[in-house]
Amino acid sequence: MEGSSDALIVDRVLRGDVEAFRVLVERYRDRYARYALHMLGNREDAEEALQDAFTRAYRSLDRCEDPDRFAAWLFRILVNRCRTMGARRGRRGRTFVVDDGALLAAAVDHPSDRGAWREEIERALRQLRPEQREAFLLKYVEDLGYDEMSRLTGVGVSALKMRVMRACDRLRELLSEVHSA
Amino acid sequence: MLDDNDGRIEQIAHELKRAERVSSSFDARVMRAVRSLPRHARLTLWSRLTTPRRISVTPLSWGLLAASLLIIALATTRAVLVEESTNPAKPITTALFAAPSKKQTPQAVQFVLVAPDAKKVAVVGDFNGWDPKHAGYQAHHSGGGVWSVTASLPVGHHRYSFVVDDSLWVADPIAPRAVDNDFGVTNSAIIVSAQE
Amino acid sequence: MHVARCAVGAIALITSTAFAQDTSTLASRLDKPTYIAVTAIVDSARIAKMPTKPLFDKALEGAAKGSDGPTIIGAVQQRWVRMGAAKQGLGTSTSPDEIRSAVTALEAGASARDLARIRSAGGKRSVTLPLAVLTDLISRSIPIPTATDLVLQLMRSGVRDGDLSTFQRNVRADIERGADPTAAATTRARGAIRSNQPKPGRSE
Predict the structure, then answer these.
(1) What is the interface size between B and C, counted as CB pairs within 8 Å?
(2) What pTM was computed for the model?
(3) pLDDT the model gives residue B125
(4) Which of A160, B173, C121, C203 is the most exposed place for a label (fewest CB within 10 A)?
(5) Could you read off the pLDDT of C51-103 as tens digits, one per residue?
(6) For helices A43-59 and A21-40, what crossing angle results, to 10°?
(7) Calpha distance A100→A105 (Å, rounded)
(8) So what's the ipTM on this one?
(9) What helix, strand, coil percent values describe chain A, rounded to 5?
(10) Rounded Cα gap, residues B108 and A122, in angstroms
(11) Domain A98-181's class?
(12) Which among B131, B155, B195 has the least Cβ separation from residue C97?
């Protein structure tokens, strides 16, 4: 079953084979964990959003219009879940606290210092507005085209382009501060 | 427009594209949640007869249907409020208007969870002191893994959860999550509205 | 007068019995230090003539979920603070149901000012359900200002609780079908307001 197409697996699940759904979980959880992690900033929230997305996908599986594009459909659910969780967290004031001391300590001499560089990127990402972060990740990390991003998010192409541009400007600004010394 | 600065964006993207792994227990958690949901079944004639429809009663659950009809018979004006469900086998939380009484009178609410492997299911929430042993909130198994209980809830917004086998807290898969999460276990939320 | 006194007495007895029962339940579920700290907060609520049930609920929730004492105390304390904000936002003659509903709205991110605006839009009607609908919209990731404005518009147009519930259910169904939450809520609100407008009179 592991080598079967998504459509075949979806069909099996819809016929009552619950355990077949595990194949889809194994197939996509790592791939989409990345997006959730970068959007939400911590592993616990990312796994919760991802688990939630899979559960919702299972529940609504009969409404997946094109089972061959299960992955894209699942991703759309995940994007929405990340939005919900991000909004909820922001309202509760659980924002990422920038520890200036840590920032200085982690200043890298060269971007090839991977751990610290990665931390800087994550920190900068956290400082973007959620919609800009979302647009940036979809465009540059998930490599989606603007049309696909628009279908996924319900936002118009020009608005998405603006968000991506602003995200890029802000990231350059934040990350050049770290490296200018 | 590409310029030298896009090298920086490429560096950032390259770093962010690194693969991530979920925790080792992730798959098990997802499957546990999924198994507690109604099993899908491509609808045969028998499935159509036995799958719950817009009201969370299967044609074969006569006891539950009889109880629901009694409640409906008591109402005089408004239609039954049913949670929309496009998957007929989904767990459904319904609010029945029990009587044409005053605005803030508690309303009968039916909680349904499909959990074929459970031995015991209870509903806990801010309406019963979160007590999984509360007598009025023990779900009854009506066959096919369907557990349900109808209870009185005051009008307003409530938090609740299912407790399976006295140990496993299960959020209602189709209800929104309650916003607060003070104790690390997320609750479900329901609005109970009054009849006017 | 005698009957009235009996009625008041009966209500007081029932209330104090419920309180005693809640207290006794709490004592059986919490360790002593936590129980003492929580009942101190509950006593503050009693003195301020505020409902105590939301505080008991929070403590019992924590106990049921196996949380430690400090976490339970912190959660109860936070809820008490929010109850104060709810009373401030809604005004002095606020029912216990309204306070409970307001607390969940505050926990979702609404402000005391939002509560005051909703109270003002509601006039004499209970705002328990409008606040619950506001909480629900926010929990479905509709931005707070948008959610508040929609609820206010619905209330000012005279949409009653029954239709408000229908609105909430429709929004939920739309979102589950994949609609953008804000678009779904805005569209459904428009529809609910339009349905509530008086039909033009017929000419004789």
Answers:
(1) 112
(2) 0.51
(3) 93
(4) C203
(5) 998 999 999 999 998 888 898 999 999 999 999 999 988 988 888 889 989 99
(6) 140
(7) 9
(8) 0.81
(9) 75, 0, 25
(10) 48
(11) mainly alpha
(12) B155
Which residues have a Cβ under 8 Å from the Cβ of C29 and sit 6 or more positions away? Answer: C59, C60, C63, C64
With a cut of 50, say whether residue B4 has pLDDT above it. Answer: no
| Whether B189 and C78 lie within 8 Å, measured CB to CB | no
**Cβ–Cβ of A84/C178 closer than 8 Å?**
no
Burial of C9 per CB tally in 10 Å (0-12, 13-18, 19+) = exposed
Domain boundaries, chain A: 1-95, 98-181
Distance from CA of B35 to the nearest CA of C (A): 20
Contact flag A84-C144 (C-beta cutoff 8 Å):
no
- List the single residue in C109, C140, C144 with the smallest CB-CB distance to A84: C140
C-alpha pair distances (Å), B194 with each of A122, B54, B95, C96: 47, 20, 9, 16
Four-way CATH pick for A1-95: 1.10.1740.10, 3.30.499.10, 1.20.1250.20, 3.40.630.30: 1.10.1740.10
Q: Which domain holds residue B104?
A: 25-192
Of B6, B19, B40, the CB nearest to A16: B40
**What amino acid occupies position B75?**
A
